[in-house]
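Entry, Tuesday afternoon. Goal for today is a structural model of the target with magnesium ion bound, before we commit to ordering more compound. Inputs were pasted exactly as handed over by J.K., no edits. I checked the ligand SMILES twice against the vendor sheet because last time a stereocentre got dropped in transcription.
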Amino acid sequence: MESLENTGENQTRCAVVGIVGRTNSGKSTLLNGMVGEKISIVSPVVQTTRNTVRGILTEPRGQLVFLDTPGLHKSEGVLGTLMNRMARQASAGVDVLAVVFDSSRHPRMEDDGWMRRAVFAEQPLVFVLNKNDLKPSYAERFKELWEQIQTEKGIRRDVKWVSVSALHPKTVSPLIDELFALATPTTGLLFPEDVVTDYPRKLAIADAIREKLLFKLRDEVPHEIGILVEQITETDDAWKVVVTLYVNRPSQKGIVIGPKGRMIRYVRSQAEPELSEIFGVKVELDIWVKIERDWMKNFWLLQRMGYAGQL
Ligand SMILES: Nc1nc2c(ncn2[C@@H]2O[C@H](COP(=O)(O)OP(=O)(O)OP(=O)(O)O)[C@@H](O)[C@H]2O)c(=O)[nH]1
Ligand SMILES: [Mg+2]
């Protein structure tokens, strides 16, 4: 990276950017694409992201701090309510709002909902038409919907539309340019220049495990698994991490453990090297599975999993 001191002037531009939009529109993929590193987990299953994840992009021209939020959805139970609250709170406190749409699909109710919210947002708006590598494209339908909502509300707002494919980092650079253009000139940076995330390590570990479970199970079971990183013990050459997976029913416990413990072994074999790479130290996972009926309604547990009291 070029040194920040070589810009010839002290003024850099900084912004906190809220990445919002419906579930599965590609918000986390986009965050990873913009930061250039895997910060946030991604999966084809809806409701992948459960917490607000921060990713930081530092360039000679300044710094963008991204908040990747859970996609808003029909709230189910305490967990759903907390996730929706996190998405709304994150979108309220930011400098720029980037609303991500899946342009390969017809606009849905949640897209309509984000546009209605955006009309009244205080921040500058960027509408990202993602997945432009896929056909057909409903880009025009999104634009028509936005016109219609503005007419209905009697308000006209300036919006930058950017078409990208989060899977292809090159297509993302015009979006980064737009975001820097909307950022405020500042004299310092918000975070040190070598930091790419300030996401707490316990949550990062839980996320890596969740991603592997989502990949293997791909149905309703992963959404019923709560992951609690109980303890991280740092020894001279490794981190020993004790993790409990909470499930609702005995049948789910069997699925999560797998025949002869195969599923847990798979998760460990995939997550351990990835986490070792991220943290630069050997990571050993000790995973336990526990049945706790309605863990999703247990506020105390949810808080320990990091869902409450954030931001
Ligand atoms: N073809 C294509 N697929 C994409 C693109 N961006 C994301 N995806 C895929 O879309 C799926 C959902 O991506 P995520 O990044 O997890 O979506 P999200 O908006 O963060 O979802 P939640 O966390 O559930 O709100 C994954 O399978 C991605 O690989 C894209 O530009 N093109
Ligand atoms: Mg996500």
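Residues 1-8 have pLDDT under 50 and may be disordered.
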